[in-house]
Amino acid sequence: MKIDVLSIFSDYLAPLELSLPGKARAKGLLDIAVHDLRAFTHDRHRTTDDTPYGGGAGMVMKPEPWGEAFAALEIAESDTIVFTTPSGDRFDQRKAEDLSARPRLVFACGRYEGIDQRVIEHAREIANVEEISLGDYVLNGGEVAALAIIEAVVRLIPGFMGNPESLVEESHSGDTAGLLEYPVYTKPPVWNGREVPAVLRSGDHGAIARWRHEQARRRTAERRPDLLAPSALADGTPIQRAV
Ligand code: 6GU
């Protein structure tokens, strides 16, 4: 997979050199390049934003540097341009899986007031476009969102994870699909007077699987009732609370 990131704060993307994406690059599964959007400006102040037509607070990112950047990156029709924006579709594991199968992702990190809408329209003409938000809160710019999305996507690239089983078991995918992850324990068996649940030391794999499923279900009911059968919620059926 090829990933390009366009940003006016390219230093923010330094963590891409580390840990997980770094490992994927070392394995030859991933090629990441970060580009400074200001390289595609021509004025002395390297201006990337301007006041909004129609008035209002904040600044809007100018279209020209984006247009030049897309041209310089030789965007192909099969590429996907990802605009990180609080007004995008909410990011989730399904979207991460979808993006992990694409040949090239180009992240366009905007400041939160946004990019001139014509840039998004232009992008839709030259490539696939995703407008993605991390959730219902506001970040100053899309850089941290791009980092989070890249981390979620890169670990799904086939051949990346040492143990693909851990991808299947975790929250939001596989066996416990739609449920939060059950609590986990390791040695010692007693710590600060707290015991590891006996069932986990019983060797009874059926009982362990049932216990984990029940824990995941309770945790989900408590913390994320929205993930449990939305139809049951809609007709007023009460959610079973964890005890
Ligand atoms: Cl993708 N961008 C910004 N600026 N704020 C956000 C976000 C993205 N997702 C949640 N908040």
Automatic annotation (TrEMBL):
Keywords: Cytoplasm, Methyltransferase, S-adenosyl-L-methionine, Transferase, tRNA processing. Specifically methylates guanosine-37 in various tRNAs. Homodimer. It is found in: Cytoplasm. One of its GO terms (molecular function) is acyltransferase activity, transferring groups other than amino-acyl groups. Coiled coil: none annotated. The chain holds residues 1 to 243 of 392 of the full protein. The gene is trmD. It comes from Nocardioides immobilis. GO terms for biological process: tRNA N1-guanine methylation. Belongs to the RNA methyltransferase TrmD family. It catalyses: guanosine(37) in tRNA + S-adenosyl-L-methionine = N(1)-methylguanosine(37) in tRNA + S-adenosyl-L-homocysteine + H(+). It is an enzyme of class 2 (transferase). Its EC number is 2.1.1.228. It comes from the Bacteria. One of its GO terms (cellular component) is cytosol. The keyword Transit peptide does not apply. S-adenosyl-L-methionine binds at residues 110, 134-139. This is tRNA (guanine-N(1)-)-methyltransferase.
